[in-house]
Amino acid sequence: MIHAHPSVAICESFGAIDIYLFDQLQKGRFDGRSRVLDAGCGDGRNLVHLLRCGFTCFAIDREVVAVDHVRSLASALAPTLPRENFRVGELDALPWADRTMDALICSAVLHFSRDKAHFARVVTELWRVLAPDGLFFARLASTIGIEDRVTHSGNGYALLPDGSERFVVDEATLMQWTARLGGELLDPLKTTVVQEQRAMTTWVMRKGGAAR
Predict the structure, then answer these.
(1) Which of 70, 111, 170, 188 could form a disulfide with 44, with the two C-beta atoms 3.0–4.6 Å apart?
(2) Low-confidence residues of the chain: pLDDT under 50
(3) Which DSSP string do the residues of 91-110 spell out, in sequence order?
């Protein structure tokens, strides 16, 4: 029988998941990677399916309200997970030990970096807690595809055609960081340009280490 409202069924199973993260799930990138950190988790929209499926989820956000919401979500969907898995804090000072996470989600967060130095600290810290063979998934604002429509304002920031000012990266920067970290791109960099107003790039890497 066809569900009368398939969108409702999808939302019940996956929440308001980032469609590009859904693509990684579909490709099997989370198979065998049970400990997942959502860095800059917001209201936990990308954790619903993972919590339902028994992943050992962790999350961090600077906003107390966001973390309280994720704790409530986890309590309902995965009540055996410790409350302490979900923390208030900054992404450049993560409270977890080296190489403890199998997968890391950082969706629509890195473009809030304060400057190039802060971006470097955050990316390095995220990489620190990722285990060998770990999955790194990030989406962030970039200039890719809208280079001639962006006004750079210094230290990584730019005024975008949609009127917002954000920290942005370009292809060269992401490739340089991939090499610096010793990461392996699992997908080519993929950028969505929204009517020449803004661009969001998906950056997916594997951390070198033991073969799966």
Answers:
(1) 70
(2) 211-212
(3) TTS-SS-TT-EEEEEEES-G
Whether residue 38 is contained in a domain is answered as: yes
b/e string for 51-61 if b means 16 or more Cβ within 10 A? Answer: beeebbbbbbb
Contact of 128 with 94, CB cutoff 8 Å: yes
The reply to whether 3 falls in a domain is no
Classified as helix, coil or strand, 23 is helix
Number of domains in the chain: 1
How many whole angstroms from its chain centre is CA 40?
A: 8
Backbone region of residue 155 per phi and psi (left: phi > 0; alpha: psi in -120 to 50; beta: other values) = left
β-partners of residue 188 are none
- The CA distances from residue 96 to 43, 54, 116, 129, in Å, are 21, 20, 23, 7
What pLDDT digit, counting tens, does each position of 152-206 carry? 999 999 999 999 999 999 999 999 999 999 999 999 999 999 999 999 999 999 9
Position 211 scores a pLDDT of: 44
* Domain contains 8: no
